[in-house]
Amino acid sequence: MFAIWLLSFPLIYSFPIGYINNVFFVSISDSNITIITNRTCEQCLCLYSSSAAYLALNCLPNDTCRLFETYPLIYKIQDYSQARLYFLQGVYPNETKCCQSNTTDLISKINNASRISVYVPSPRCLTFDDYGYLVTVSQTNQTLVRMHPSNLTIDSPVPPIFSIAPMTITYYNQTYFVAFVSYILLVDTTNLTITKNVSSPMFSNIRDLAFIDNGQILIVVSTSSATLVILNRTADYSLIAVQSVNQIYPHGLKYITDNFFYLTSWNNNNVYLYSRINTTYWKGEPFIDATSITSTSDGNHVLYDQCGRYWFSLGSNGIKLFNIQALFLGNLNLTKAVFDTIITNNYTIYISDSSSNQIIRLQPQIECFQ
Q1: How many CA atoms lie within 13 A of 155 on its CB side?
Q2: How many helices (DSSP H) and strands (DSSP E) are in the chain?
Q3: Which backbone phi and psi does 268 adopt, to 5 degrees?
Q4: Which residue from 105, 205, 268, 295 lies 20 to 30 Å from 195 (Cα-Cα)?
Q5: Helix, strand, or coil (residue 260)
Q6: How far apart are CA 270 and CA 320, in angstroms?
Q7: DSSP calls for 133-159
Q8: Is a pLDDT exceeding 70 seen at residue 3?
Q9: Are 282 and 276 in contact (CB under 8 A)?
Q10: Backbone torsion region of residue 288, taken as left when φ is above 0, otherwise alpha when ψ lies between -120 and 50, otherwise beta
């Protein structure tokens, strides 16, 4: 629950501007966002609050402004200290709604979608940053790769070359977190320099990362030891706890809320739902079991759409769709080996294929109502 306040400019404007303090508006989308850097929040307000081109302004504490021309169909509002979200036209985003509830029709449209791809040797996880870039890492080239999501053009700045192959990447607070077997490098988004090395003897083949509690806590998935390594980010990544999990070779962690997340097993092709019991312990319960409909171990990542469908990326087994009752709905065989998947507005889909060395963008003929 967030409170909306009103800000008035009595000498300039004839209407108040609503805002929410300490929040970050996350667009699960790839367009309609303009990023302004090196501007204070007050400067952005003066420049853009009277423009009819923008519906919302999200000010961040590092003098970055994010302007929204339209509201995304799928979004979330998360805690972000010292940030502020302004509703410039007095228009608020609609509640996220289900689009394409007919799964058979959805699969047909995706199978016939327009497709573009870009060569990235051995890509891994996918993420979006605050600047709208689609980002992954290349294991072969041992580097970070940023792309423009509309056409998959690779961004020109030269990123750091790592000494070994990266295993995964995630993004938080103007920083790329690039994980390797036994450590994590923090890379600044503005100049692509390495700012910190986080290591722990508890790390054992890192496979995924997630932040909770407004970024205070970092959860690291260590696959070889089948553990969750829980760190305090705000206390120099000090160790809070190490928890064993019930899955063999845990792999992909999908954040739901600060109290729930999904975790995949690469070995058993299953998904567990973990619920928070206290600061140091999470209880895991079986949710999806895809062993009977797959032929090889490849339980990489899971996500869910606004219709309550779960998309399980299973490598050479394709993407398997399940409903909230964990019942199988259908199959998508879109490429050779699906490592990770992101769904954005109108079911535009991005796929990381680590076997055929490419990032794929699929745009089906789907128009969801805003």
Answers
A1: 20
A2: 2, 30
A3: -100, 0
A4: 205
A5: strand
A6: 11
A7: -EEEEETTTTEEEEEETTTTEEP-SPP
A8: no
A9: yes
A10: beta
For 263-282, give one letter per residue: b (16+ CB within 10 A) or e.
Answer: bbbbbbbbbbbbeeeeeeeb
Q: Are 263 and 221 in contact (CB under 8 A)?
A: yes
* Residue 48 to residue 40: CA distance in whole angstroms: 12
Residues, the chain, total? 370
Give the separation between CA 239 and CA 233, rounded to whole angstroms: 9
Tokens of 260: 């729930």
Backbone angles phi, psi at 48, to 5 degrees: -125, -10
Q: How far apart are CA 104 and CA 170, in angstroms?
A: 32
Q: Which of 181, 244, 246, 179 is nearest to 218 (CA)?
A: 179
Q: CA 287 to CA 231: how far, in whole Å?
A: 26
- Across residues 238-251, what is the average pLDDT? 96
Report the SS3 class of residue 224.
Answer: coil
Token readout for 365 is 């003929």
Nearest 5°: the CA angle 126, 200, 240 is 90
Which 3 state secondary structure label does DSSP give 235?
helix
Neighbours of 151 (CB within 10 A): 9
Give the single-character DSSP code of 246: S
Here the tokens at position 168 are 């995964």
Q: Are 343 and 349 in contact (CB under 8 A)?
A: yes
Q: Amino acid identity of 156?
A: S
Report in angstroms the alpha-carbon separations of 165 from 109, 119, 135, 142, 219: 36, 17, 16, 5, 21
What's the token pair of residue 262?
């999904």
pLDDT (0 to 100) of residue 82: 86
At residue 143, what is the residue type?
A: T
pTM of the model: 0.81
Dump the DSSP string for 160-193. Answer: PBPSS---EEEEETTEEEEE-SSEEEEEETTT--
Cα–Cα nearest to 49, from 3, 93, 90: 90
Residue 206: what are its φ and ψ, rounded to 5°? -65, 135
Average pLDDT (123-151) is 94
pLDDT tens digits for range 287-317: 999 999 999 999 999 999 888 899 999 999 9
Q: Cα separation of 128 and 134, whole Å?
A: 5
The answer to whether 116 touches 141, Cβ cutoff 8 Å, is no
